[in-house]
């Protein structure tokens, strides 16, 4: 029985209330800046009045009469003097401004506890940054930290959040092992459980350690401001990339720095490999990629786990096939290989004839393969062919044919992933709480931050080609049929899925046309599948492939 989509509900007034609070806070800050002199004088007058009352209460009763007479005489003299009242008013206002000024003491250096922490950190670094042959060591037992440490900052709990230090020129800062030892020491001494970033300046012999804030986990699936050929894998730190895109999170729209993966004939990273722990968000990343690819291309999905994570994509315009069985996966990937060859032949013929590329060749084709290790294990048990072997043609020639391959699997099952897949996927993403050596084995380079033991789903690292390793947080893109996900996230995914034409519950209102970003209509198949009929291959259903439901029924 088909599941009915979640109902659409009207948005509440949370956004309007949040915007009203922000405007009220801004107005209060502006009024405080404008009225600051008046507030200072008022506070001073209050303090002067309290001081005068306390002085009067402390005066003995026998002296209150003469004191009152003296004050009255002074007031009379000021009233008879030229400009006396004005001078008295100016004097009182000046005293009130002086009395009401902000006299909160400002810290100019670390306190005693912070000084002890810096000294302990200095002493711990002495064995790594000193040698006996140095006549004037920067780090020495019993030395002071002031000459070695520069700018530093602490949080409210007294833990280091930033530290800039100098090290001697003879330290082997080019050795990854020596650098990793110092990084582990600084991370342990500054407070565990936080993600620290280390920036080594080898020319100036300086190291800057900074504690990074947590990446936002409130960004759900939505339409990102990108051009065709760009895919947002997630979001990172604002200091790592020079681009921002508007996103909506918690009812507000703000700018976030994205990790953009570029595909197409000019891309240097045409294919992607995702690895992570179970529940780390690899399948959610594939779902996010599929949602971004559907408006401009066609998608073939192969789900090795068989858990129905992509059941919501079945039958959608632009989704050519969703296969979870071994036979269906082999048929879908075989058609993908033949389609890649057909596109290459058609593109070569068009270029030799001086004609533009056909529309069906220019339209991108995405192949999303989730958990190939499961199907590889099944194929090995049955003595059949591994479906990953059929990815050889799309991986090798997909960039020229407009075919993009995305493979995702568990990090402990990467041994089942074919070497062809690993060697042709220069774009890498590692998700979950992974040790630094595992992250380096997946991405090909160590991260510049210290991994933390507990991370939210979708949190990890990304590396595109030979660029630096970036922190990444994948947008929340759950299965819309998963009851464990929040209603807002499920509705966001359903809103991005193309509407099924055969489902009345998903039809748009009367008078509104349904957008169909589906595939280019192929020619009717005649004879065998392949380029020998009319130069085209048929989609999976027309090439002898059964639909996902048919395959499941046949194997059941």
From TrEMBL:
Q: Which organism is it from?
A: Streptomyces tremellae
Q: What InterPro entries does the database record attribute to this sequence?
A: P-loop_NTPase (IPR027417)
State the taxonomy lineage.
Answer: Bacteria, Bacillati, Actinomycetota, Actinomycetes, Kitasatosporales
Supply the SUPFAM superfamilies for this chain.
P-loop containing nucleoside triphosphate hydrolases
Q: Where is this region: Disordered?
A: 499-556
Which residues lie in Low complexity bias regions?
Answer: 508-532, 543-556
- Which superkingdom, per the lineage? Bacteria
Keyword terms, alphabetized: Membrane, Transmembrane, Transmembrane helix
Q: Does the keyword Transmembrane apply?
A: yes
The family database entries (Gene3D superfamilies) matched by this protein are listed as: P-loop containing nucleotide triphosphate hydrolases
The protein, known as: Membrane protein
Q: Which residues cross the membrane?
A: 68-98
